[in-house]
């Protein structure tokens, strides 16, 4: 065997194998690698879009939280104002009620004073008549002297 012929035959077989590999094996492999690279690139782009959307969503959430916080503070302030107005209204109502009760008590006291004066006048008139009766040692007719007694009451 000739060494050159063997080398030449191996060289020819190598080139045929290289040509076959480049023609039939290499393109599907390259296509699969390109598809895989494209999938990876798409995945990375989707991840970047997801990050951007996440950041935008986070900003929207922060804005909504700030808005809700402001709304809550406004509602608390409104509730405090309403509570204050209710307290003021209750104080005013209580003051009005107290004034009404005091006026009623004064009127009642005035009535009792007037009644006591009337009773006192009646008692004084009765005592005066009894005293006059004792002095005169005879009975005075109260029905006959009713005008006189009323006049005496009015003077007292």
Q: Could you characterize what this model shows?
A:
The protein is mainly α. It has one domain. The protein has two helices and no strands. It has helices at 3-136, 146-155. It starts with a helix and ends with a helix. The model has no long low-confidence stretch (mean pLDDT 87). One of its GO terms (cellular component) is endomembrane system. Keywords: ATP synthesis, Cell membrane, CF(0), Coiled coil, Hydrogen ion transport, Ion transport, Membrane, Transmembrane, Transmembrane helix, Transport.
Describe this protein with a few key phrases.
156 residues, mainly alpha, 92% helix, single chain
Structural class of the helix and strand makeup?
mainly alpha
Count the beta strands: 0
Alpha carbon gap, first and last residue: 172 Å
Global mean pLDDT: 87
Helical coverage, percent range? over 70%
The largest pleated sheet is described as:
none
Beta-strand residue fraction: under 5%
Cα-atom radius of gyration: 60 Å
Domain tally: 1
Number of helices: 2
Residue windows where pLDDT falls under 50 for at least 5 positions: none
Would you list the SSEs in sequence order as H and E? HH
- State the shape: rod-shaped
């Amino acid at each position: 065997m000739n060494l050159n012929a063997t080398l030449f035959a191996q060289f020819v077989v190598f080139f045929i194998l290289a040509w076959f590999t480049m023609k039939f094996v290499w393109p599907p492999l390259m296509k699969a690698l390109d598809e895989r690279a494209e999938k990876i690139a798409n995945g990375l782009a989707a991840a970047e879009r997801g990050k951007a959307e996440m950041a935008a969503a986070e900003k929207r959430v922060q804005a909504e939280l700030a808005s809700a916080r402001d709304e809550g503070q406004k509602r608390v302030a409104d509730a405090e104002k309403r509570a204050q107005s209710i307290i003021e209204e209750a104080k005013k109502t209580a003051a009005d009620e107290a004034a009404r009760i005091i006026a009623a008590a004064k009127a009642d006291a005035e009535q009792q004073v007037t009644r006591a004066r009337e009773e006192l006048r009646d008692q004084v008139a009765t005592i005066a008549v009894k005293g006059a009766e004792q002095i005169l040692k005879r009975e005075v007719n109260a029905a006959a002297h009713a005008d006189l007694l009323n006049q005496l009451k009015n003077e007292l």
